[in-house]
Amino acid sequence: MENEKSDEKNFFTRVYEVTSLIPQGRVTTYGAIARYLGSGNSARMVGWALNSSFSHSGFVPAHRVLNRNGMLTGKHHFGTPSAMSQLLENEGVKVENDRVVNFKNRFWDPASEL
DNA sequence: ACAGTGACCTACT
DNA sequence: GAGTAGGCCACTG
Known about the structure:
It contains six helices and four strands. It has helices at 11-20, 30-37, 43-53, 83-90, 103-106, 110-113; strands at residues 28-29, 65-66, 95-96, 99-100. α1 (11-20) packs across α3 (43-53) and α2 (30-37) packs across α3. The chain is globular. Mean pLDDT is 86; it is low at 1-7. The structure holds a DNA duplex (13 and 13 nucleotides).
């Protein structure tokens, strides 16, 4: 039932929803979200959407979204390069060299979970 | 309306 | 195994 504010449901909002659904201590990838949204290979748009997440009202756990290698690619966009890794460690995710440890084990696939 | 950009991914060489 | 190139869709100027 899409009866809630279907007026401004942009691609961005869709990403916010999925990203916001990421369980704490878990991480996902841009490609996974892109595929779940049906964008296919447009993983770039996902990252870009998260970029606007800072403008979005409310907090979006964009730090839980990494690239295919589990690397914190957009850490520089958090304002401080340490904010992303710090947030992840704060949630129980160990980060080393801008990379998530046991990333494969912590990988949360929306298309598989949802 | 056109062109450029963007936190990527996949495939080929 | 590693590196390079192209593709993709959506937003901004």
